[in-house]
Amino acid sequence: MLIPLGILAASGVGVAGSYELIETYTVGSTPQASITFTVSSYNTTYQHLQIRGVGKTNATGDINGDVLRVRLNGVSTSSYAAHGLYALTGQSTPFSYGVTSQTSMRAARISSNYSGTNSATFGATVIDILDPYEAKNKTIRALGGHNSVNAWLELSSGLYLSTDSVTSVTLFGESGSFIQGTRYSIYGLKAS
Amino acid sequence: MPTATYIPLATITLSSTDSEIVFASIPNTYRDLVLIAQGTASTATGLVFKANTDTGTNYSEVYALGDGSSPASGSSSGTSFQIGRFDTNPAMSITHFMDYSATDKHKTVLVRYGSASVATYMRAARWASTTALNQITITTQSGTFSVGSTFSLYGIAG
Lengths: 192, 158
Fold this sequence. Notes:
The structure holds two protein chains of two kinds.
Chain A: E1 2-4, H1 6-10, E2 19-26, E3 34-38, E4 48-55, E5 66-72, E6 80-88, E7 95-102, E8 105-110, E9 123-130, E10 138-147, E11 151-160, E12 168-173, E13 183-189
Chain B: E1 3-4, E2 7-13, E3 20-24, E4 32-39, E5 45-51, E6 59-66, E7 72-78, E8 81-86, E9 91-98, E10 107-115, E11 119-127, E12 136-140, E13 150-156
């Protein structure tokens, strides 16, 4: 069955209001060590936040790409924990990890400038930050992956051990800076 | 100023069985697309994705699954990749096509899907083309999609 979308879809007709784009950041020609979204002013508007995007860093040392990491409120003390399930090229069973006392949270792997990586290949990630403004420790979930020289797929669950309201979300590469074409957008989800 | 998004572009609910679903003429005015599929099929089958009219070996993927006894993973490349799996029991999948209209990037796709009677899956895939994605074709590997199966496409601003 063929569904031609055409003019109706292009006009953006649809139900509005509960899921909103807050901000998009696209890296230009100068590599960026990190991307920070300030979200303090949305504490009475949204119940949850979601970050969506594609990324690539100028790291060169790992055939599996670079690791996308997250910090909340600029906190870089040992306040984070995470568990993850991942799969990669050449492996017939997935792997897992569990870490505590981390200075940031691991989200997923993205593409990098490892030798042989196609310049047009990026890694995609969707990150959910649940109840960021509530007086509870913060839960983050991410799904991401890329198909570069090696392919990598990861599902992670993270914890930020603080009941403080989230005022900012910072993304950065573990081994390199984001390069041109990297794009992350943050969205707010309203409660009913 | 926040912008309301997650716009429903098209939904099809099958009134007769079919082995192919096509969303054509997808506008390039969004950042990402999200496809939600829910339904059954005449037999166990993957939902096979092709972009535009590309039948070349431009598709690659890495996946992992858990069926309650034997977790497995793998990677491959070829002329398509899967974005779900249906069988005679209800199943669903959510597929994210990221930066689908970008002409400076290959298209990265993230998928989560599963059926309670079979397994849960996740996938990261790539369509190695810098052409904007303007058509999504989903076909069965075997059999047909059943009456009542739904396929919904959403556009997300960014």
